C-alpha cells in the first residue's frame, strides 16, 4: 500500500478519471434537472435530489482512496465546469432565436436562473463538498482506517446538512415562510442522508475494489487542508 507519497505524482489513473467524470456528471445533471419539483410520498423536493447525493458518494470514494489533496482538485474542477455550463446556458438563452422556432419562452423557463439561486448553489456546493471531504479524511486518521461506514455516513450527513442549509437559506430566505423553509431543509437533508446509508454496501465495494486495483490507501497525515491550497 502507498500513502502520501503517491499523491506527489501528477499522473492520474483511468479509474481516477472515471470517478472524477462521474462526480462532475452528477453535479451538472442535478443542477440542470432541479428546476422540477416532485412529490414522492408526500415529500416535496427538487428532482435533482435523486442524483445529487451520488456526487457525495463519488466524493467519499475520492477522499478515501486518493486523499484530500486530489479530492480538492476535483471539487474545484467541478466548480469550474459548473461555471462553464452556466455561461454556456446564459449565452444560449440570450442569442436571438430563429424566427420559425417557438420554444424560446419554455427554453428560458427551464434553463434560466437567477443570480440569487446561482450564488446559493455555488456557495452550498463548496461548503458541503469540502466539509464532507475534510471530515472523512480526519475520521480516517482517527479511526486508523477502520469503521469505513462511520466516516462515509458521518461526513455525508454533515456535508449534505450544510449544503441543504446554505442553499435554501441563501436562495429562499425572506421569500418563503420560515416553517416551510425549515421543512424543506430538513426534508432534503434526511432524504440525502438516507440515500448515503442505503448505498453504503455499494460504496464499500467500490472503495475496496479501487484500493486493490490502484494499490493505494491514502492517509492525509501531512496534508494542508486549506481548500484554496490547490497547488499542493
From TrEMBL:
Subcellular compartments: Cell membrane
Transmembrane segments: 12-34, 40-62, 74-97, 117-136, 148-173, 193-210
Membrane-protein topology: Multi-pass membrane protein
Main localization (coarse): membrane
Record keywords: Cell membrane, Membrane, Transmembrane, Transmembrane helix, Transport
Purpose: Involved in the import of queuosine (Q) precursors, required for Q precursor salvage.
Listed name of the protein: Probable queuosine precursor transporter
